[in-house]
Structure formats: C-alpha cells, structure tokens
Design goal:
It holds the Pfam family HATPase_c. By secondary structure, the chain is of the alpha+beta class. The protein folds into two domains: about 100 residues, no CATH class; about 150 residues, Heat Shock Protein 90 (2-Layer Sandwich). It has eight helices and nine strands. The strands form three sheets. Strands 4-6-7-9-8 form a five-stranded mixed β-sheet, covered by helices on one side. Strand 8 and strand 9 form a beta hairpin. Helix 2 packs antiparallel against helix 3, helix 3 packs antiparallel against helix 4 and helix 5 packs across helix 6.
Length: about 325
C-alpha cells in the first residue's frame, strides 16, 4: 500500500497500475521488426525473380526500376492507411478528452454552486435566528414603545440582510456577484454588527467589546464583509461558551515600512481554548467542523471575503488567551 495523495492510499503496485498502459517503445520496436523482415524477404525474392527473367543488363535495370516504383507505391498506400487509422484514433481520443473535460467542468460548477448555496443557507440560518430573537424582544417590550421602535429598526436591517443573501443565492446561476462595491465605514459597520449579533441566542451571555477607529473605511462588498465578521464572532462565541469574552477590533498598519498604502486589519479575539496547530490548516476548508452539529460552512464566508478583497487570513494566539482571527485587507481609505 502506498500513499497517492495526502490521506489517500492505493493497494495496487506500480506494475499493476501501469498494466493497462501502452509501451510506445515496445510497440515501435515490434512494428520496425516486421517492416524490416517483410522488406528483406521482398528484396531477396524480387531480386532473385528479376535476375532469373532478365537476359540483359538493360532488362534488369527496367525490372528493378518498376520493382522499386511498385514498392514505393505499395508501401505509400500502406503508410497512408496506417497513418489515417492512427490519426483517427488520436482524433477520437481528443474528442473523448474534450467531452470528459466539459463534463468535469460542469460537475465542478455544480459542486461550487452547491457549496456556495450551502454557505449562504448557513448565513441565512444565523440571520433568521437573530430576527427570531428580535421578534421575541418586541413581544416582551409591548409596554415600551421606544424599545419596540428600536427592535423594529434592527429587524428591518436583518430583513435587508436576508433579502440581499437571497439575491446572492439567485445570482449563482448567473455566476455573478449581486453585492455591489461601495465605501464601507468601519465604525458604522461595527455598530450595525453589534446591534444585530447581540440578539443571537449564542451571544446572549457573552461579553462583546468593539474597538474601531473613527473615520476609517475601505471600498468593498458590504454584505459579504458584514456576514464574514458576524460568522467570526459567532464562531468565537461557540468556542468560548456562556460567560466568554470576545473582542472585535479594527486598526491600520502599513504592510511594509516603505509602503505608502496601509492595510486595514480586522481582529476577533476570544478567551476560548484556542486553535491547535493541526486545525489551523483545515479550519477554513469547506464542510470541516469540530462540532457535532456544525456544518463547517461558517468560516467559508470569511475565507471568501478575504479572497474577494485580495486580503489574507491568519489564526494566532489572542491576548485574551484563546484564538485570534485576523483578516488583513489592503488599500485603506481614511475618509469617504
């Protein structure tokens, strides 16, 4: 048994795996042998017959000339049909490969669309949970009109999220991104995220601290960015459990000392158990989860957000004692 890919093993030996492959050298050697064999027999027999029928040198020359011309014509026709057969086989093989490539491409597109749909469904579920909690708060605040107005305002924001994600889901068939590029004010976006995630059932008994620089922003896809930050916060909440502490921070740092364009960095700290070295390379893979009831799709939107904004993701130790998820985006804009 030998390893073919990481985590995949084959029980066939190299000889068994290559048993169905053609050996070009051996096939060419056999073809050359039979060609030389039959040509040698032809030359000897035809030469003997020409010598026995020729009564002069001139007659022998004519017979040899006709014999050579006939040999060239016959072998030329043979090579034509052999070449035609080989090229037809090559053409058929190329057509088969093209059909297989098209089928593989269609399969990959369907798998990608299914994965994106699953990720959006995961995000929709989180948002619906927030909306459900807001409805419960409205029911409990029927005697307080001010609270009701505030909850209704937040509920409208949540329904706008759901509407946007539904549009993204329907746009998968068109292979387009319906989330438009716009200027994102980080402090305003943090306030919106704070108002919404505090209603999530998994964050009811968790301390949330938001630290954002004022008048800081960047051009990006707001819905995708907001959902990515929300999923990072919810993921940290699952890690810490009730009574945990989560710190959400934005800051500006130069990419290099000589770089004139700084980067905007978003950090989500928690005081949970942290992420082991073995899990760091797997945690952003689709459908990978360490929870019994998890789907492994929450952090997929975080990875997608970083990629669509040409950023990068890091997981390091947090100052709170748990994990720090850091998303770095370039091309910071300080004012709108």
């Amino acid at each position: 048994m030998k390893e073919t890919k990481p985590g995949e093993y084959s029980f066939l030996s190299d000889h068994q795996e290559n048993a169905g492959l053609i050996n070009p050298f051996a096939k060419s050697l056999v073809s050359a042998f039979w060609y030389i064999f039959f040509c040698t027999i032809y030359i000897w027999i035809s030469g003997y017959m020409a010598a026995s029928k020729a009564f002069s040198t001139e007659e022998l020359m004519k017979i040899e000339a006709w014999k050579g011309t006939g040999f060239v014509l016959i072998t030329g026709v043979m090579f034509f049909f052999i070449s035609l057969s080989r090229w037809n086989r090559i053409k058929n093989s190329m057509l088969t490969i093209q059909q297989q490539n098209r089928a593989l491409l269609i399969s990959e597109k369907r798998a990608t669309a299914g994965l994106c749909a699953s990720s959006l469904a995961h995000d929709l579920n989180n948002t619906i949970m927030i909306l459900d909690a807001q409805i419960n708060e409205i029911e409990e605040s029927l005697q307080n009109p001010d609270k009701i107005r505030n909850h209704i305002f937040n509920s409208r924001k949540t329904t706008a999220w759901i509407r946007n994600m539904a549009q993204r889901l329907s746009s998968l068939a068109k292979s387009s991104n319906c989330s438009s590029l716009s200027f994102i004010n980080v402090s305003e976006s943090f306030q919106e995220i704070n108002d919404l995630v505090r209603m999530h059932p998994d964050l009811k008994n968790i301390k949330l601290d938001f630290q954002s620089l004022q008048n800081t922003g960047f051009h990006g896809y707001k819905t995708i960015f907001t959902q990515a930050m929300t999923n990072m916060i919810i993921n940290s909440a699952h890690a810490t459990g009730p009574g945990g502490h989560i710190l959400i921070r934005s800051k500006i740092e130069p990419i290099t000392k000589k770089d004139e364009n700084p980067a905007i960095i978003f950090e989500v700290h928690d005081n949970g158990p942290g992420v082991s070295r073995e899990l760091k390379d797997k945690i952003f893979d689709p459908c990978f989860t360490t929870k019994d009831t998890g789907s492994g799709l929450g952090l997929l939107s975080v990875k997608a957000c970083a990629e669509i904004h040409n950023g990068k993701l890091e997981i390091v130790a947090s100052e709170l004692g748990g994990a720090l998820f850091r998303m770095t985006l370039e091309n910071i804009i300080n004012s709108e």
